[in-house]
Design goal:
EC number: 4.3.99.3
Pathway: Purine metabolism; 7-cyano-7-deazaguanine biosynthesis
Organism: Candidatus Heimdallarchaeum endolithica
Strand order of the largest sheet: 5-4-2-3-7-8-9-10-11-12
Bound molecules: iron/sulfur cluster
Subunit structure: Homodimer.
Radius of gyration: 18 Å
Number of strands: 12
CATH superfamily: Aldolase class I
Function: Catalyzes the complex heterocyclic radical-mediated conversion of 6-carboxy-5,6,7,8-tetrahydropterin (CPH4) to 7-carboxy-7-deazaguanine (CDG), a step common to the biosynthetic pathways of all 7-deazapurine-containing compounds.
């Protein structure tokens, strides 16, 4: 008998676009066509680490835990949306993904918010998408539930783990948060996922923090991407200078081989697409 898909979850938006982050490192899907499922809710924004999330958050709408509606792209890449009500079932969501599938689709990106926050829903979603042959890309920043991550990690093909430095202000104790994020990298790597780490840097990022992050990535052999913060209205942090960017990539070079160090800019923001 066919098993019923029972899980419902909260999603903020679903659309087709191109992965705009990640440079050309192992684990990155930079420049490849993806369907983005932006799951709702972010534990960091909810204050689990003592702050209200990253000061430069580029998807603040996805911080809401249970949004009333989901924005669904009408046609793949059309950037026009209709609304449906949350919560959504896994079966409904997979049908939407099927509908947005294009001949050049590389993978489905599970992003957020934080896609691991609704772990039971994510686990069933990952299973169903895998059964249909989709490659899966996970964009994650934090979960307390490492067992939950282990449950789904063997179904994920690519992953980007955001590691926050002190300037992101994502936690009162930034190093404790970074340690957890590095553990997540290890779990994904052990499961055979092509994983890389991404650090958003700003004019306030310090060499001390970056030495720590780079040394840990070097120790675990996790490729590391540096991404200058994208300026936005009201954000006090500024993009780092060119001198700062290259001094940081050179710090990374003290711990990692050159092929595992990259510079990423948010290309989708530059060309004004989703
Ligand atoms: S982890 Fe992601 S969604 Fe949460 S506050 Fe930071 S950037 Fe925003």
């Amino acid at each position: 008998m066919k098993k019923e898909l029972t899980k419902y979850g909260f999603v903020q938006e679903i659309f087709s676009s191109f992965q705009g982050e990640g440079a050309s490192l192992s684990g990155s899907c930079y420049g490849l066509r993806q369907i983005f499922i932006r799951l709702a809710g972010c534990p960091l924004a909810l204050g689990v680490c003592g702050t209200k999330g990253c000061v430069w958050c580029d998807s603040p709408k996805a911080q809401t835990l249970e949004p009333k509606f989901i924005l669904v792209e009408k046609e793949a890449g059309g950037q026009e949306f209709y609304k449906i009500e949350n919560p959504i079932s896994v079966a409904q969501l997979v049908a939407i993904v099927d509908n947005l599938r294009t001949s050049d689709l590389h993978s489905v990106s599970l992003t957020g918010g934080e896609p691991l926050l609704q772990i039971d829903f994510a686990a069933e979603l990952v299973n169903e998408l895998k059964k249909k042959g989709y490659l899966l890309y996970l964009e994650t920043a934090y979960t307390e539930d490492l067992l939950g991550l282990k449950r789904i990690s063997n179904k994920i093909d690519y992953a980007c783990v955001d590691i926050k430095d002190r300037s992101a202000q994502s936690a009162k104790d930034w190093k404790k948060l970074a340690e957890q994020e590095l553990k997540m990298c290890k779990i994904l790597q052990k499961s055979g996922v092509k994983v890389f780490a991404k650090v958003v840097i700003s004019n306030k990022s310090t060499e001390e923090d970056f030495h720590y992050i780079s040394s840990m990535c070097g120790k675990y052999q996790i490729p590391l991407v540096i991404q200058p913060v994208t300026p936005k209205k009201g954000l006090e942090l500024k993009s780092p200078t060119w001198n700062k960017i290259k001094s940081f990539t050179e710090i990374a070079g003290e711990y990692l081989p050159p092929e595992n160090i990259g510079l990423s800019v948010q290309v989708h923001k530059l060309i004004n697409i989703l």
